[in-house]
Design a protein that fits this description.
Layout: H1 28-36, H2 40-69, E1 78-88, E2 91-99, E3 105-113, E4 119-127, E5 134-142, E6 149-159
Antiparallel strand pairs: 1-2, 2-5, 3-4, 3-6
Length: 160
């Protein structure tokens, strides 16, 4: 290298020669967009797919809400244990309030429990259909050992 070739920056001086040959190709942004699939066409397609998916989700959820909300055939049972009386070492009386639509029959499971909350007596009772919505039922549960409580386990519809 001679002195004319050296400049103030040394060998790394800026060159006036172009780095890449000039071409008539599209700008770099368009080349990248086409290469990686971000064209205006794909953007519209993605928006349409997202809108279609969102509409399908709204339709499914809306259909479920309508089906669940207006299903008039479903009837529920509301039951509560009101009181219990330990009559003896082998007997507990349990009083329940059972609420159901008039004309429906219900079965309820009642149990007696000992100090460790183990079941020591169990009985399924049938609550007859009535014109009243709420009925108070008292039943006797026989036990295998002394009980400290009598509780309602569950109730379910048995006929329409």
């Amino acid at each position: 290298m001679n002195e004319d070739e050296l400049s103030e920056d040394g060998v790394f001086a800026a060159s006036t020669a172009p780095l890449a040959p000039a071409s008539s190709a599209a700008p770099a942004a368009n080349v990248r967009a086409e290469r990686y699939g971000r064209t205006p066409k794909s953007g519209r397609r993605n928006r349409l797919l997202a809108l279609g998916f969102g509409a399908a989700v709204v339709l499914v959820i809306g259909s479920w809400v309508i089906w669940a909300g207006f299903d008039g055939t479903a009837s529920t049972v509301d039951a509560q244990d009101k009181a219990y009386t330990v009559v003896s070492d082998t007997r507990v009386d349990v009083t329940l309030n059972v609420s159901v639509a008039s004309g429906r029959t219900v079965s309820c499971a009642v149990e007696a429990q000992n100090e460790a909350h183990a079941v020591v007596g169990f009985k399924v009772i049938d609550v007859p259909a009535s014109a009243q919505r709420t009925q108070q039922i008292t039943t006797t549960v026989l036990t295998t050992e002394p009980a400290v409580t009598g509780v309602l386990d569950s109730c379910w519809l048995t006929s329409s």
